[in-house]
Amino acid sequence: MPDMELYAVPIPQGGTTSAGSTASQQQTVQAILGSDTGDVQSIASDPGERTLTVEYPDKYAEIRAQELRELATGFSQPLPYHAVGGASPDDRYVTVSRANISPVDPRSTQFQQGDIALNDSGSIASHWRSIRTSIQQVEPLGGGNDTTAVVGVPSAASKVRWFDPETGERADPAVQATRTTRLGDVNILDVTQSPFYDAATNSYPVILMELPYADEGATDPRLWDARGEPSVTDADDNVVWQKCFSTAHEYQGEVVLENGLLRLFFDEQSAPGIRAERWDDAAGAWSSVSLGTSSDWELFDVDIREIGLARVRARVEWQDPTTSPTSYYTLSLRLSRGYADALWARPDNATGPIPSGLETLLDPIASDLICDAQPSMGLVAREEVL
Is 277:366 a contact under the CB 8 Å cutoff? Predict the structure, then answer.
């Protein structure tokens, strides 16, 4: 059996070496030849439920275990569970119903074991992958003049259509642009151009598509804990940054938001506390972005509010220590799949306009969008599409 992946978290497996049963369930025990990594799968449990025991026995075990723990507790959306590098009869969409993850030996963090239960949510054969939209008008940094409501759709998706959930009607979308990200192309759609969008009645379309399990997550926005490491991978190409799936994650290093086009690094211990990089596809590397320098504003606090499959949202508080008393201002930050720039906006409860010095600092990485399409990934049963 091939290794599996639960969204962006590896679930290592191997060939069946033994089988056993209890009064309540039968199990198959998986192990990789010459390795301690293994997996136990229930083949006769509650209907639609699969139980897994996953082991991570290496120096990065604690990172992988924490990623699995946060994914299990922080995400309620259906997630792809699929074979790596091929196909498996077990490929499908699942939700995680429970998880218990801990070190095998409390004296060492380098051997972690997790017991998780996956509930069946369907498959590509039974469901369309969907992106729900709901346009929210915002007051962006710099004023903004772009009235489009951008939604990024992985170019790997096929059979992409607008869908009206009220009438069941469908329509082909017009791709506004294609943007090349670090991990794949993204097609840009404009919700306001859908025939099913009606601002007067707050009617918003759903996007339906077929997306291979293995292509899910590739172009999604990411939230990382850099853990004091200078790059995502080490010299042996091991991922040493930690993917974060919980808004309550305790960061050990820089907070990094990325969507494959733009990277934002936040460090509350430095001034101005933010730096940025853009993906240069021709060079195959990230390039530094020069932020506004004639500004006294610096980072005070980052509060992650939402980690989704289509966007990450945060509230970022800034301070100007040169004033007496110190001035503070909070901005809303949204980074969605396919965004070329971050959407910095004035929160509804903000007092006063966005300070000009803060606009100066962030203008090189600020979007002109005045509408947030608020994309949210989900599933739509094929039988619901007439």
Answer: no
Task: Please report how many Cα atoms fall inside a 13 Å half-sphere around the Cα of residue 372, on the Cβ side.
Answer: 24
Q: Give the end of a domain, one of 122, 138, 167.
A: 122
- Bridge-based pairing of strands 376-381 and 184-190 is unpaired
In this structure, are 137 and 70 located in the same domain?
A: no
Range of the domain at 195: 124-386
Q: Is the pLDDT of residue 155 over 80?
A: yes
Q: What pTM value is reported for the model?
A: 0.88
The Cα 347–Cα 208 span in angstroms is 31
Please check whether residues 101 and 189 belong to one and the same domain. Answer: no
pLDDT tens track for 13-32: 742 222 222 223 334 433 33
Q: What is the pLDDT of residues 78-115, one digit of tens each?
A: 999 999 988 999 999 999 988 888 878 776 777 888 88
Residues 6 or more apart whose Cβ sits within 8 Å of residue 246: 70, 73, 74, 307
Burial label for 200, CB within 10 Å (0-12, 13-18, 19+), is: exposed
Distance CA 183, CA 282 (A): 13
Amino acid at 46: D
